[in-house]
Structures are given as structure tokens and as C-alpha cells.
Amino acid sequence: MQDALARLRDETLAQIEAAIRLDEIEAARVAVLGRKGSLKQAMRQLKDVAPDERPAMGQLANEVKTAIVEALDARRKLIERAETQATDAAFDITLPGIHRPLGHEHPLRRTEAELREVFARLGFEVAEGPEVELEYYNFEALNIPADHPARDGFDTFYIEGDVVLRSHTSPVQIRVMEQRQPPIRVVVPGRVYRPDTPDATHSPVFHQIEGLVVGEGVTFADLKAVLTMAMRELFGPDTATRFRPSFFPFTEPSAEVDVSYAVNGEKRWLELLGAGMVHPKVFEAVGYDAERYTGFAFGMGIDRVAMLKYGIPDIRLFFENDVRFLEQF
Ligand code: DAH
Predict the structure, then answer these.
(1) From 101, 227, 260, 313, which residue has the greatest number of CB atoms within 10 Å?
(2) Which are the contacts of 297, defined by CB distance < 8 A and separation ≥ 6?
(3) Do residues 210 and 196 make contact, with C-beta atoms less than 8 angstroms apart?
(4) In angstroms, what is the span from residue 294 Cα to ligand 1's centroid?
């Protein structure tokens, strides 16, 4: 009987140790300690044991019972604790996650980045200047005196006194030249302002990218080459450029540059840039020797480029922040 009790104890403890659910604990308890359980059955053999051995056997049976009850209790607590912890975390890893919509680059920013890259490949650095600008940089230093009729074309918002919102990126030409000596090869992307009534092609805020190259022996041929290459990079290898004589106070000679595009195989032209050879008066304003240095400059509307590239019919779409529009890019 001693052996039977020991075996019963060992087997039951191993079974309890292996239980991972509460119902397994309960099943083990009933099987061993229940009214028809294996321990009760073992106890029945007590009457067959020699009377002088009975007390010792009885004590052993009690010890086995206590060991099993304690083991059942300990294992039950452990399983219960594990189960509450799992619920407390309130975290069901099988639930689908919360989808957060991801934004992306605005089409204007993307176009600007593309322009920066194209000009970087042609050896241009990027420079920047303030959007809140002094009249002097926006006008006078660029050879646009207060009484000159060309001033109307660059009219802008006045903050107070001689502080304005820049109406083009050209003032940064002056700021760059004031700070460095030639050779200079920079592009200046940025936001500009004009008191225009909004319509499909006008917005009081829009974007330009300015270019400036200054050195010894820089010619109009260099200007044509750089712009023609840049336009082919932007719009494809078959793109043609057309230079029409024009007027800007800060360049002489000046040109308006058109870019060709095809609609149903038919060639059309779109005016995209102003450009020209830097006016000697501009070099004088920054203290450059106009006899020694020549240079060219250009200015282009980034919004226009983006409209052309993506086929966008109305400039106002860029600034309305309608996600139905923005999601398409
Ligand atoms: N600043 C001119 C504008 O806003 C564009 C321009 C024309 C820039 C000729 C230039 C240039 O640098 O040479 O209309």
C-alpha cells in the first residue's frame, strides 16, 4: 500500500504541474480527491493492512492528500493570475490595427524638388532669401526706380514703410552678389506675392525659381544652352524652347522664353520664363566690375511648371488643401 500511495502522489503531482487550464485542475481534483477518486480507493485498502501498521499508513495517506491539495491550490492560483493579466492588458493582438492615412509631398513641393535636381545636375547651388523684403532689394537694386512704369508689373503688398512682401525671387540675386564674388551659379526657389485677384491663372501667392550665373565671358549662348537643357530634362528630350525679345529692367538684352508642348500631335507654345543678360546697373548696385563680369539670369513660375507637368487647369487648386485634389499626386 505504501508503494501504491507513493505512485499515486507522484503521478498526480506531475499531472497538476502539466495543467494549463482551470478545468484541467478541477478534473484532476475530482479524479483523485472526489468521492470515487483514486485516493479514496487507496484508503479502502487500509482495512487489509496489519493493525500495527495502520497508523503509519493512515499518516502517509494524509500526507499524500495534503501534498496534492497544496499542489492543486498553487497551480490554480498561477493559472488564474496569468488569465487576469492577459485581460488586464486590454490588448487583443488579433484585432486589426487602426489605419492612419499617410500624407505625402504637395505637387508644388515635388515640382520644386525636381527643378532643384535638374539645376543641381547643371552645377547650380541653391540659395534662399527673405519673403518679407526691403523695397530696395525688390526694386531699386534691380534697376526698377520708384517712378519707372515697370514698377507696376512688380507691384506688391506693403507691410509698412519700405518693407514689402517680395513680388519675385530676383531680390535674392542682389543678396547673393552682395555676399560673394564671382563665379556664381545659383538657383533660388521660393514663395512670392502679388496683389492679383485670384482666377484660374493668378494667385496672390505663388512660387518662382530664380537663376543667376556670373563670371568672366558668360554669354547669351550659355543662357540658351542651360535653359534648353533644363527644359528637356523637365519635359522630355523633344522639348523645344523659343526666345522672344522682351523687357526687364534688370536684364539687357531680355527675353521671354516659351516651351513647346504637343496637344494631339499639334505643337503649341507656353510662356514659362523671363530671362536675360544681367544689366550693368545691377552689377553696379552690388559693386561688381561690369567691364570684367557678365552674367545671365532667369525667373520661372514653379506653379506654372507643375500645372503643365500634371495637366492642372486652375492654379487655385494648389492652395485650397482639398485632399481629393492632393491625393491624386
Ligand atoms: N522677376 C521676373 C518676374 O517675376 C522674372 C525674371 C525675368 C527673372 C528676367 C529674371 C530675369 O531673373 O532675368 O516676372
Answers:
(1) 227
(2) 170, 173, 210, 211, 212, 213, 250, 251, 275, 276, 278
(3) no
(4) 17
Taking the C-alpha atoms of residue 181 and residue 197, their distance in angstroms, rounded to an integer, is: 40
Q: How far is it, in rounded angstroms, from Cα 213 to Cα 278? A: 9
CB atoms within 10 A of CB 217: 8
Ligand 1 centroid – CA 298 distance (Å): 6
pLDDT digits (tens, 9 = 90+) for 239-294: 999 999 999 999 999 999 999 877 778 888 988 999 999 999 999 999 999 999 99
- Block residue for cell numbers 483514486: 38
pLDDT in tens, 23-41: 888 888 898 888 888 888 8
- Is 210 touching ligand 1 by the criterion CB < 6 Å? yes
Q: Please state the atom number of ligand 1 nearest to the C-alpha of residue 276.
A: 13
Neighbours of 209 (CB within 10 A): 24
Ligand 1 atom having least distance to the Cα of 153: 14
Contact, 258 vs 250, CB < 8 A?
A: no
156-167 pLDDT, tens per residue? 899 999 999 999
**Residues 192-197: contacts with CB under 8 Å, at least 24 apart:** 192/131, 192/165, 192/166, 192/167, 192/168, 193/131, 193/156, 193/157, 193/165, 193/166, 193/167, 194/154, 194/155, 194/156, 194/167, 195/155, 195/156, 195/157
Specify the pairing of strand 125-126 against strand 184-193: parallel
Nearest CA to ligand 1 atom 5: 299
Q: Are strands 132-134 and 158-160 parallel, antiparallel or unpaired?
A: unpaired
Instruction: Enter the pTM of the model.
Output: 0.71
Summarised one tens digit per residue, pLDDT across range 209-249 is 999 999 999 999 999 999 999 999 998 898 999 999 999 99
Does domain 107-326 fall under CATH 3.40.50.2000? My reply is no
Starting at the edge strand that comes first in sequence, how are the strands of the sheet with 163-165 ordered?
132-134, 163-165, 158-160
Angle between helices 107-121 and 220-235 (to 10 degrees): 130
For residue 226 the three cell numbers come to 542651360
Distance (angstroms) between ligand 1 centre and the Cα of 87 equals 68
